Amino acid sequence: AIAVVSYQGQGGYCERITARRGKIRGNGHGRGMSVVGGKDILYEYTEIDGVTGAAGVYLAQEDSYKTYGCHNVTVRRNSIHNCGNKAIDHTAVMMFSNSYEKNTKLRVERNLIVFDEGIANAGGLRDYSDDTGCVIDSNIPLGCSKPYRFNNAALFTIIPWTNGPVGVR
Fold it and tell me: Residue 49: CA atoms inside 13 Å, Cβ hemisphere, count?
C-alpha cells in the first residue's frame, strides 16, 4: 500500500518522507506500510485494517533484494487492526535485517494493535535481527497471540504503555 524502498544499486537512500492520515484496508496480498531501506521516515495517524498477506507495518533491510537498512524511522499513533500473516510468521509490526546493514533508530510508539477474537495471528511486534538504538514505546497490543517477540530484546528500549492516547484519534 505505502512503501519506501531504497535499493543499493540506486546509490543512496530514499529519505525525508512523511506519510500521514492514510487509510489502508483489505490488502490481502502485501503489506500495509513498509520501509525497506530509508532514512528519516515518519508514518503516523494511519488506519491499517485487514492487511493479511504480510505484516501491517514492515521495517526491513533485505539482502535478497539488495536494499539498504532503515535509519531514523518513526511509526507512531497508528491503528493496526487484524494485520499480519500467521502462515508466514508476519506479525502486525515486523522489523528485520539480514546482514548488509542493521537497522538503527527505529521508533515504534503509541500504536494500537488489535486482533479480533478468533483471528489467528502471528503476534503484535516482532524483531528478528540485531537492530540497534531502537525504541518500542507505549504500544497497546490487544488479542495478540504473542504481544512482543524480539531476537535480542537487550538491544531495544522497551517502554510499556501506562497512560495517554494511542492509535488514530
Answer: 10
Q: Which set of grid coordinates corresponds to residue 24? A: 489502508
Grid cell in block for residue 41: 521516515
Could you tell me which residues are beta bridge partners of residue 137? Answer: 109, 159
pLDDT in tens, 110-166: 999 999 999 999 999 999 888 889 999 999 999 999 999 998 888 899 999 999 999
Verdict on whether the full-model pTM lies above 0.85: yes
Answer whether 32's CB lies under 8 Å from 8's CB: no
Residue 100 pLDDT level (bands cut at 50, 70, 90): confident
Among candidate residues 75, 79, 85, the one with its CA nearest the CA of residue 141: 79
Tell me the DSSP string of the chain.
-EEEE-BGGGTS--EEEEEES-EEE---SS-SEEEESEEEEEEES-EEE---SS-SEEEEE-GGGTB--EEEEEEES-EEES--BGGGTB-SEEEEE-SSS--EEEEEES-EEE--TT-----SEEE-S--BSEEEES-EEES-SSSEEES-GGGEEEE---SS--S--
